[in-house]
User: Fold this.
Amino acid sequence: MTLLTDSVVEAARTRPIAFRHEGRTVSLRHTNARSGLTVADLEVIEGETVLGYITPYARNQYGAIPLRFLGHTLPKITLTVEEALTEICR
Assistant:
């Protein structure tokens, strides 16, 4: 498991990071996406298709939200990259 920490987010801001998740290859990359009061640090992509977003909460604490829910519901707090990808890719 990969903890979803500030260092992972900082690394993905400079260069996309690829992960295998449930038979899929998805990447985390920097974004400036926002909807209402929700601001995303990273987007989760498969190829060039955006699947969802990683949003900041507090130091070393992030939320995950599928694309279709951005701006409609609060992101779910996740501790690991795998938890975030499961939330986004379901």
